[in-house]
Amino acid sequence: MAKLSLFARRRRRVRTALKAVSGHKPRLSVHRSGRHIYAQVIDDAQGKTLAAASTLDKDVRGKTGATSEAAAEVGKRVAAAATAAGVTRVVFDRGGFLFHGRVKALADAAREGGLEF
């Protein structure tokens, strides 16, 4: 078996801990690339995405970019979409990404938007 990268080890550690404490709540999953940030609220029991937002959305894409402000806008949008789908409590899945910068900005904005985690 190949040795896992530090990112893959962090991601595995985070997901394992989330499964232990989730209590079957939906998961707010975050993916960050060099240019964009993506967020999804996923119901793992049904295997369905309940809400999603990213910087690829047309009205977010033009004015911001790969910044904390763009991540905050995505956090607000995913919180609004999740609330519209009837979800208020989630567990935050940062994947293998450290909780600072754009990931933290997205999480803080999602909390302000009404999601509890």
Topology:
Layout: H1 6-21, E1 27-32, E2 37-43, E3 48-54, H2 58-61, H3 68-84, E4 91-93, H4 102-112
Parallel strand pairs: 1-4
Antiparallel strand pairs: 1-2, 2-3
Helix pairs in contact: 3-4
Which bin fits the share of residues in helices?
40-55%
Q: Strand order across the biggest sheet?
A: 3-2-1-4
Query: Quick one: biggest sheet?
Result: 4 strands, mixed
CATH topology: Nucleotidyltransferase, domain 5
Description:
The protein is α+β, with helices and mostly antiparallel strands and 117 residues long. The protein has one domain: Nucleotidyltransferase, domain 5, CATH 3.30.420. Helices cover 41% and strands 20% of the residues. The protein contains four helices and four strands. A four-stranded mixed sheet has the order 3-2-1-4. α3 (68-84) packs parallel to α4. It is globular and about 45 Å long. InterPro entries: Ribosomal_L18 (IPR057268), Ribosomal_uL18_bac-type (IPR004389), Ribosomal_uL18_bac/plant/anim (IPR005484). Belongs to the universal ribosomal protein uL18 family.
Q: Gist?
A:
By secondary structure, this protein is an alpha+beta fold.
